[in-house]
Amino acid sequence: MKPKVLSGISVLIVTLLIVGAIFVPAVSADEINPGAIDGTGDDGGTPEVGVEWSTAGGLDNSDDSAGGFYNTLGDAGWTRKFNKGDANALESHFEYFNNGDRNYIDGVDIAFFNGHGSDQHISLGPGKDVFFSSEIEWGDYDLEWIGLHSCHSTAEPGNFKGSHYGLNGVHLICGFETESLNYAEDGPSFAERLLDGENVPIAWYHAMDETHPSDKVVQMVAEDNSVWNDCIWGQGSVASDPPVDGLWSAWSYKLH
Amino acid sequence: MIKTQVLFILSLVLVAGVTATAIPACSIQDQDDPTLPSDSLYDTKFTLNTALPDVNESYVIYRTVTPDVSDEYVKKMGERFDTYGKAEKKSESTGRIQIIDNTGEESRCLSVYERSGGIVYEIPEKAFPAFVESQPILPSKAEAREIATNFLKTRNLLPEDAEIESVEVDKIYKEYMIGHEGPTLSYNMTLDVHYSRNFNGIPVYGDELSVIIGDKGEVVEVIKSWRDVQPYKEVKIKTPELAYSDLIASRFARPPTENLYEKVVVEDIHIGYWMEPRITEQKVVLPVYVFSGTGTVNGIERPYVEFVSAALSEEERVIPGNSP
Fold first, then answer.
1. Hey, are the CB atoms on A7 and B93 less than 8 Å from each other?
2. Can you give the pTM of this predicted structure?
3. Hey, are the CB atoms on B258 and A92 less than 8 Å from each other?
4. Could you tell me the end-to-end alpha-carbon distance of chain A, in angstroms, rounded to an integer?
5. Tell me, what's the ipTM?
6. Is the pLDDT of residue B320 over 70?
7. CB atoms inside a 10 Å sphere around CB B160
8. Residue B182 CB: number of other CB atoms within 10 A?
9. Which of A118, A152, A252 sits opposite B172 (nearest CB)?
10. Domains delineated in chain B
11. CA of B24 to nearest chain A CA: how many angstroms apart?
């Protein structure tokens, strides 16, 4: 009897291994960064920063801009959670499927992306697109603020209330209404201003205004205007997570 | 034996169940709208829909004259805006020095950029309100021109060659609701009176002079990054053909746009001068070719403008008998 029972258990173990082989790639194909899982994933705890970038299509400054943002906050005591670029920048880091975003974009307090994009999506590289209206749900886990440094990224605020709500607890999505230019200085300058106590949307405007000419426009999108005066953690007040509903606000600021 | 068979069947059911759960999730994750961008859009395609311009063989280049931006200089500049306080270096990377004056009813802020002498003056509460409950009372365009010009003149900040290029809405607050096309509420909060200039009839791009006017005609923000210049020398420039090939090869005078152009139709080409942003040190002002027209992104046509340096290399640009 005993050998037969063992044989049955062996079959079960083998089966579970097969299950594991099928299931594990679905959640960890994207080279999980151990640091992305540890620490304070949800709201609260040590503030964390994460950045992603793409230099595809000649955007040679994306890494310096995003890296500068990352290290400026990191040097000021923020937990550096992830810095993923080009081949390591993956759609699953941004998208809600399988809660993949909780280990990356929605697993930090502030995030920054630099690369190509449109009013519909950001591009992490050839064939790697993240669509705003159907693939993101930011803020239900941790994310408070995100800068999308790509062309037209916030030109259509309604895309963040599409079939899925990108505005899903996140306080502010800062981006461009018009096209943007690939300046290396933008990321670090944005971070410096945040650390100097400027409100998040005004810091975004100021940093982009320093480099972009007068035919460019930034647009900041939020669930409501209660979050306008948000400073980053440790630099001033932060509003409570806004209730997620069918209303939202946007501020369009011309650059000079 | 029966127990083993039962376990085996249960295991198969488990495998089938988990596979059915996992595989659709993977396929959804990888499924993007096929009508939108992918690899092919990184190949920008240009069409020239205008004749290449006739240009001179040589153009004057200019030297910039940048002030010594000391703390004392910043304080003196602050006096022009009734903004007083300690000048403080805020950023090494951008060279920004700032005075924040909290002594009045509303705070005032002046930033001066040490590498260019550029200034930004603001009344933050009025320039960047969280929201407005009603449409601010903004001046007419004609009134805005007068307000802006008077404001600059009385502070000795209006260069003789400044011309008003445009008066446009500057900042807008909007509210939206699911099910409504466009915003349910939209307030124009400020107007931008924007100035431009030219050097000997050739337009200058990249530097800014703007006066931002808010509620009841109050000036709430000024941005001025014009560098003073002096003629330096005349140099030979690239041919339009060479400049156009540089455009196609993405050799621009500034960083590239983060747009995914499917195609670009160039409808105008002319010579201009290029000024760097206020955070940048610039010693010499060089001519550029300005290419403008229409760019298509995701099937949507948008205005296109790009700048290509007209300057040849140091050796190539020298005109015999005209060395510095």
1. no
2. 0.85
3. no
4. 83
5. 0.85
6. no
7. 5
8. 8
9. A252
10. 21-64+231-317 (2.40.128), 66-229 (3.30.310)
11. 10
